[in-house]
Amino acid sequence: MSYREILGYLYNLRHHGIKLGLENPAKLITITGNPQRSYRTVHVAGTNGKGSTVSMIASVLQAAGIRTGTFTSPHLVSFTERIQVDGERIGEDDVIRLARLIRSRVEEAGDLNPTFFEFVTAMAFMYFMEEEVEWAVIETGMGGRFDATNVISPDVTVITPVGLDHREFLGETLAEIAYEKAGIIKDGVPLVLAPQDADALKTILGVAGERNAPVYMYGDDFRAGIQEVTASGVRFDYMTGHGDLPRPGAGMRDLPLTGAYQAVNAAVAVRASELVLESCGFPAESLPRIIRSGLSRTSWPGRCELTVFRGMPVLLDGAHNPEAARALSETLQGVFLSASGRSEGYDGLILVFGAMADKDIEEILGPLLPLARAVVFTAPSYGRSESPGRLCRLSAEILDARTARDGAGPESIHTAPSVEEALELASRLCRRGDLVVVTGSFYTVGEAREAMGEGAVLSRLREHG
Asked: Torsions phi, psi of 37, nearest 5?
């Protein structure tokens, strides 16, 4: 089977779309030898903050000397971002080798028709076994109960904030979506829980109670006491129990991801990491040092990532649902724009925006449009992308309602047929003191990174996300 043939096979798997259910994934990992049984796992579900939390946990475990695998999705530029061991991406040759092996076993089984995500999940699990990882931190693709990753038997589960996303698959209400996310909770397995809406919280705690899962809840059992949020990161104290006192020696500094919400994600990651390290026999007095070291090395591209392109500052953020857009808006106002009172802040904002048509675009755009001096609507080269023209019409409706109320709105609105051309246009619109913000979808951010010169590996192997 040639390289080109196996690539074609992987590309074609994407056409199978999304199928929620565990029958296929269970068969797939069985015929590949149940590799997930060779290491211990942390399973992470939620709507926002999953990837950042996975990255933080993995970084802490690596700082402890634990050989650690991570499985995340979607990728920004290179398919190999999805599967990593100790921060090193899987090689392209290993992707092709494992794809050939798994395909041969699928064909031998005769009754399997895996989706792209199911296939890639099996690939990750096999790679971790081959690489002799000790712990793997696994992010769900979507939902949890019927997600392909839910064939594992985790040692720790984590649920990050649940919001309204993927409603066509997971349900129309927060309670329904939270029930799907809570499907990763296992009997007796500890759950670390991020802040939740009341309906989501009630649902998740109900499932945890039914399964006798110990719950460590943000706000009750631990929390982040934020000291400072800057463009370069966030500083916070990790507080435990009800006394609102930092754990001795555990004040965390220099988390290189910005936004107040990242301090919350980090506190969740710290609690999950403590559970792992304690289960491995690390003495309590060693944990603060390990955790500080791990958090300080965390990297998670495409989330409030500040870079420079052709002399202009560019902020890349994959905000693709209302909650993420509101968090980005708060960070822009509180950290990046000079109106926040920061002398180093930017005077104006140029918004480059591209989104998927099945997202709640009005709610995503709403918090961002009033901040922009100029807007460039575009479309990443993906079948679900909303057209720039449609984005223009939606923004006009949003601005008509808002302008009638408070008079805010961009000076100009433009369109560009591709993300690369949108960046070119933004560079022409950019004035001294402006910040270009690329957002609306991880696909938009990924194509921006490619346009800015990042080399890609199998970049077309993108999946729903």
From this structure: -80, -5
Which pLDDT tens digit goes with each residue over 174-205?
999 999 999 999 999 999 999 999 999 999 99
Q: Which helix (H) or strand (E) holds 246?
A: strand 245-255
Of the listed ranges 119-133, 273-287, 349-363, 393-407, the one predicted with least confidence? 393-407
Six-digit token string for 150: 């839910």
**52 pLDDT above the threshold of 80:** yes
C-alpha closest to that of 230 among 326, 314, 317, 335: 335
Count how many residues are written for the chain: 465
Q: 388-404 pLDDT, tens per residue? A: 999 999 999 888 866 54
d(CA 241, CA 219): 9
Structural domains in the chain, CATH included, are: 3-296 (3.40.1190.10), 305-451 (3.90.190.20)
In sequence order, what are the residues at sequence separation of 6 or more whose Cβ sits closer than 8 angstroms to the Cβ of residue 213? 157, 185, 186, 187, 188, 189, 190, 191
Tokens of 45: 């579900």
At 413 the three-state DSSP class reads: strand
CA distances from 385 to 73, 266, 381 (A): 18, 32, 7
* Beta strands at 156-159 and 191-193: parallel, antiparallel or unpaired: parallel
Per the structure block, which two tokens stand in for 201? 């919280």
